[in-house]
């Protein structure tokens, strides 16, 4: 009844049919974003689509082959994910990278709630059949690549269909990451402030007044290629601050920002803070349907050391824009949870599902995963 087509390149994907399966939260799985990710962060990839007898698309998902030398994110690489969640107490139960890598990652290559794309209009049992077929084909591809494991790193708590099928295919699970989301339900920024405590309202007003008195000019507009070189420097400052100077990448025409500015997937917007005419801070955002994704930030730390610009460009300006545009939701991603909760976000748990081809390794990791719960996530 169903058949699967596998594409080796993003350009081969029938975009209209693929994107018809995407919902608001699936922006990073749309073909423009898949192309951006593949060009700026190239990985061995395949793109799977499942069709019914009438050639109607019913499901789709990308997969990526992860190696120790090419993937360093502790939210995407399964061995690092397990070690991060296990912590010192249970780290001894996690084998070395050679037992887990290479690994195939199913779904978005961004830290996001995007999942397997599936036609939710068909009966649940048909959705399960489509996902089961996709998983079987993915497992064949993983074995042909010589992978040691398969991981679906971002499965939302409300995705019962996907969770059910993954368990039927003998995947074990463990909590991976909290993602912060802000639901927009206000008519103005003042209305938003009224939803916070008096102490928080006062603090935000004080921060914004400080920025205004410093002569900082704020704007939000489409990303421009002419600004990319400056934005790359500011983004490099953040990378170097938190990951060491070696994390700073030299400017490149294939950088995430450069490709985004040229090819403009979705509606790339950038919040800019200027001081004396020069950009000193930014936040890159994507608008997709009625949702906004905050993707990257950058700062000139020397010129903004005493200014609370992180919150202005990363929170208050996107919130103002979302309210004015009558958007429904802002996606703020992982980490800095206290600051995000303080400003009205709620957290959504993403669970990782994993399967190892070596039975002993699979059993060892499944036993370790059974000891982990969401309380271990910072």
TrEMBL record:
Pfam family, one: FemAB_like
Name of the protein in its database record: BioF2-like acetyltransferase domain-containing protein
Natural source organism: Thermogemmatispora aurantia
């Amino acid at each position: 009844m169903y058949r699967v087509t596998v594409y080796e390149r993003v350009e081969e994907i029938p975009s209209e049919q693929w994107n018809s399966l995407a919902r608001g939260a699936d922006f990073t799985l749309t073909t423009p974003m898949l192309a951006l990710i593949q060009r700026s962060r190239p990985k061995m990839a395949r793109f799977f689509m499942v069709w019914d007898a009438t050639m109607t698309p019913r499901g789709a998902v990308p997969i990526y082959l992860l190696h120790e030398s090419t993937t360093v994110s502790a939210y995407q690489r399964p061995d690092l994910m397990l070690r991060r969640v296990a912590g010192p107490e249970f780290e001894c139960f996690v084998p070395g990278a050679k037992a887990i890598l290479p690994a195939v990652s199913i779904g978005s290559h961004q830290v996001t709630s995007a999942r397997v794309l599936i036609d939710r209009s068909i009966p649940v049992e048909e959705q399960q059949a489509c996902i089961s077929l996709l998983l079987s084909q993915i497992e064949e591809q993983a074995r042909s690549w010589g992978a040691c494991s398969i991981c679906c790193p971002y499965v939302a708590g409300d995705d019962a269909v996907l969770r059910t099928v993954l368990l039927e295919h003998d995947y074990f699970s463990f909590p991976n990451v909290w993602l912060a989301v802000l639901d927009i339900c206000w008519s103005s920024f003042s209305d938003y402030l009224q939803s916070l405590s008096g102490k928080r309202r006062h603090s935000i007003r004080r921060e914004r007044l400080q920025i205004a008195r410093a002569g900082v000019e704020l704007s939000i507009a489409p990303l421009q290629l002419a600004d990319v070189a400056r934005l790359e420097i500011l983004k490099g400052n953040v990378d170097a601050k938190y990951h060491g100077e070696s994390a700073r990448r030299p400017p490149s025409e294939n950088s995430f920002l450069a490709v985004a500015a040229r090819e403009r997937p979705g509606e790339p917007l950038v919040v800019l803070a200027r001081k004396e005419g020069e950009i000193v801070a930014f936040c890159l955002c994507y608008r997709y349907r009625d949702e906004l994704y905050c993707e990257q930030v950058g700062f000139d730390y020397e010129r903004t050391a005493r200014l609370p610009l992180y919150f202005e460009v990363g929170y208050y300006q996107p919130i103002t824009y979302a309210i004015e545009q009558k958007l429904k939701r802002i996606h703020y991603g992982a980490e800095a949870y206290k600051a995000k909760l303080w400003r009205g976000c709620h957290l959504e748990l993403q669970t990782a599902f994993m399967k190892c081809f070596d039975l002993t390794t699979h059993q060892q990791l499944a036993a370790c995963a059974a000891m982990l719960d969401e309380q271990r996530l910072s």
